[in-house]
Design a protein that fits this description.
There is one protein chain. This protein has 261 residues and is an alpha/beta fold. The protein has a domain at 163-259: Trna Endonuclease, Chain: A, domain 1. The chain has helices at 8-19, 24-31, 35-45, 48-154, 200-203, 214-219, 235-238, 240-245, and strands spanning 163-164, 174-179, 187-188, 206-211, 225-230, 248-253, 256-259. Strands 1, 2, 3, 4, 5, 6 and 7 form a seven-stranded mixed beta sheet that branches. A hairpin with a 2-residue loop joins β6 and β7 (256-259). The protein is rod-shaped. The N and C termini lie far apart (141 Å).
């Protein structure tokens, strides 16, 4: 309901709001009157010069406000475009990075041929090295077993006789096998099928097998055994009493039998 008459207090408040720049329509709605009533009230309360100056200022505000809003819109639009351009540059940079990685991946695949060729050469070299090592190893094992072979050939007509260990020429280092509890691993001579020409009594003797080459000892070492190095071969002579007490009366070294008795 529209109020037809405003009190003096309401008129003073209306003029104050009008000076602050509040629009005529807003004031009419706030005070429950028509826009013409607002204009007449302000005009009656102010001097003509003040009213004219106030009207001029309000007129400028009316023209400036749309321009300010347009400026805000343009600013926001430019900011949006700038952000979009930045995003586009990021996407473009990301695409270039992917392309760069794809190019690098292609180069790496091309270089794989060289890698395969190098690997083939490495495998060939490794195979040749292994063959040479096996050949040297075979020669060494052949030389180590040669005395035994000669003995077998020469013992066709006579029995193999053990030699005294005392004063025998032995290698500077000897190696033998023990079990996990560090116990010696003697064997009956009958278990060595290649030792032909043994008498029946000799076949039942126990022998401690020693090696002059660590590689041969490791080759014959099982999972439950260990290779022990004997730095002084003469320890065999010094511990002969102990070995004999254990039932060990023979030493077998590279096909040669040595007696501890």
């Amino acid at each position: 309901m529209v109020v037809t008459r405003l009190s003096n207090t309401q008129k003073q408040e209306l003029v104050a709001y009008y000076r602050q720049g509040k629009s005529t329509q807003a004031l009419a709605k706030s005070f429950g009157c028509s826009p013409n009533t607002v204009s007449r009230t302000v005009k009656a309360a102010l001097d003509p010069a003040d009213y004219a100056a106030l009207k001029q200022v309000r007129s400028r505000m009316i023209h400036v406000e749309p321009q300010r809003k347009e400026l805000i819109i343009k600013t926001n639009l430019n900011s949006y475009c700038t952000d979009q351009s930045s995003d586009d540059r990021k996407v473009e940079g990301f695409s270039q990075e992917i392309n760069h990685k794809q190019v690098n991946g292609t180069l790496e695949i091309k270089d794989a041929d060289d890698f395969t060729e190098d690997s083939d050469n490495l495998c060939k070299d490794s195979a040749n090295t292994e063959i040479n090592d096996k050949r040297d190893e075979f020669k060494e094992d052949y030389n180590m077993l040669l005395p035994l072979t000669l003995k077998q050939t020469s013992q066709d007509s006579k029995i193999l006789i053990s030699q005294p260990l005392a004063g025998a020429p032995l290698p500077s280092n000897l190696y033998f096998l023990v079990d996990k509890s560090m116990e010696l691993q003697p064997k009956y001579l009958r278990e060595f099928s290649k030792l032909g020409g043994l008498s029946e009594g000799e076949r039942e003797r126990q022998a401690l097998v020693v090696f002059g080459n660590p590689r041969q000892a490791k080759r014959l070492c099982s999972r439950t055994q260990r290779v022990i190095k004997l730095p002084d071969p003469r320890l065999l002579e010094r511990t002969a009493v102990y070995l004999l007490a254990r039932g060990i009366s023979r030493i077998l070294l590279e096909g040669t039998l040595y007696s501890l008795e």
